[in-house]
């Protein structure tokens, strides 16, 4: 397996559309189509996750050259669950729009876009979002303030700091309020008030990257009425370190959040300390073992005091037939106390999968 393919395979899980197929490129307009078919099965004593988990994911990325220095772009991505019966409610069945945004990019000033996109904190969280199946990150989740994917986000990014410093990247993001309404129905734990945040990263010449991000958001009245958590704002800061050279990938992040980390439907932790560490190696024959450690400890919970709300080791092995096809197994060694008072799942899980991606 040549060095170029090794790099593609190591980064395919870290970038949306990394293996996209170009379907149109004419008159300064380009459209790439990407997706994957994932045949997956979970084995666990936890009946909520045991069984079939097959899904299909499709998306496109397009751009148009407006002038010598200005480019327009857009992206859309959708998830189709294949493990449910035909018919029924799309959202309940897991079918959902993951991404949908459009923007403009200037050669020097950077890019600005608006829509459903990743939160600014994911700039750090992405470096440990690498396990092939069990990537249950401690402080990143969809529609959770400015961490994972979410709507109503205005994002500005500038790489190489206006062309002055190679490898120095800055970003700023604003998110408008998303609360339950007729046009935008959502539960309290999927809502947010106005928020903003910033990220900064530096890619050194030695294959090491240093990252940091911070965000703050208003909380809603409905969120403060839940059993757990009470505060005007949800805050988080995160920092990370990554080493990515040829076949070796090492990354670690540390984050601290306040009134932000959800605990099921009970509400939010007043404060959490979050640690994530991953190590991965891709052999020339196509095998890629990975080990990861994820822990989130909640502080001063109203019901139980300090308690782990996520704590597990992850062990996986992937075999890449080529850049489009892979087979894998992943084992989640859960370290959550079986007698916890919050109903957090404590069962181990095994996942088996076969993925075709393009």
TrEMBL record:
Keywords: Membrane, Signal. One of its GO terms (molecular function) is porin activity. It is found in: Cell outer membrane. This is Outer membrane protein C. GO terms for biological process: monoatomic ion transmembrane transport. It comes from Duffyella gerundensis. GO terms for cellular component: cell outer membrane. Pfam families: Porin_1. Residues 1-20 form the signal peptide. The gene is ompC1. It comes from the Bacteria. Belongs to the Gram-negative porin family. It is a multi-pass membrane protein. The keyword Signal applies. Transmembrane segments: none annotated. Coiled coil: none annotated.
